[in-house]
């Protein structure tokens, strides 16, 4: 009696699914959770996944009308919301993902690096610790000698097509480049065949080595400007690395493109310092209504910033490099400066 009941139940279930939609020869036993295709066996399931590029996993965010929802859909939505809540709580407790903006208090070594770069008129921007570029950065400041040792990323452009490199660019990295050496001295080990590195990379850098160190042109990839991924600055190979970085914005470490042609590599365009200055001014300065002249506005802004930093130093008891968020400090600032 029990066997007859189970057989009848199975027949009713298969008849409810209908015929197999793959082979159309047998009654369907399974329904795909994602695309709801009815199948009868494992081979038919595999065929339907291959033809429809289906992974068989139900889309948990798919819209279901309220009148079609069952206890299964309600339970699935409840579990999905629980998982989202648990994921958000885990992210809050992860120290690497706690901050979404630039940290105010830098470690002593990074603060010294940024202040030393500022004295050299270099806008050094340091990323958060969970960024890959920050993790790769090996730049350090020799505090006793007052000398930077930069990590430099060299991108040799116009590599032969048979090398099968992205954008025909070969990438090399020097972890410690003395800022007092010229660009020619830093890159000579890749071009002069008397050096072992140049001999090892002869297949990739044959065009650059043929042109010679005197024919190479150097381009610093732009940062902090619009369309920075496709813009670069022309550098002087006879000047030191530190002199070439003056007035530039550097994110963690410089990226320098090297080509044997007197023009930017393919896909890049040249930009000069005046264009960068104009674009940064447009982004940083607030929009003002017609009134006093631009020079007067600039003087007022300078005076305000002077008062601001004096108050910051008095409040903190030491020199500060960035503004504070403390409410008490903001109240003092508002009392001293008329906006």
Q: What would you say this structure looks like, in words?
A:
The protein has 339 residues and is an alpha/beta fold. Among the domains are: 30-89, no CATH class; 106-279, Phosphatidylinositol 3-kinase Catalytic Subunit, Chain A, domain 1 (Ubiquitin-like (UB roll)), CATH 3.10.20. The chain contains twelve helices and eleven strands. The strands form three sheets. Strands 4, 5, 6, 7, 8, 10 and 11 form a seven-stranded mixed sheet that branches. Strands 1-2 form a two-stranded antiparallel sheet. α11 packs across α12 (327-336). The longest helix has 23 residues, at 71-93. The model is unreliable at 283-294, 296-302 and 315-326 (pLDDT under 50). Interacts with FBL, SNU13, NOP58, NUFIP1, RUVBL1, RUVBL2 and TAF9. Interacts (via HIT-type zinc finger) with the RUVBL1/RUVBL2 complex in the presence of ADP.
Outline type: elongated
Radius of gyration: 32 Å
Task: Compute the average pLDDT.
Answer: 77
State the separation between the terminal residues, measured CA to CA.
91 Å
Question: How many strands appear in the DSSP assignment?
Answer: 11
State the CATH architecture of the domain at 106-279: Roll
Q: Which class of secondary structure composition applies to the elements?
A: alpha/beta
Strand content: 5-15%
Sketch the major β-sheet.
Answer: 7 strands, mixed
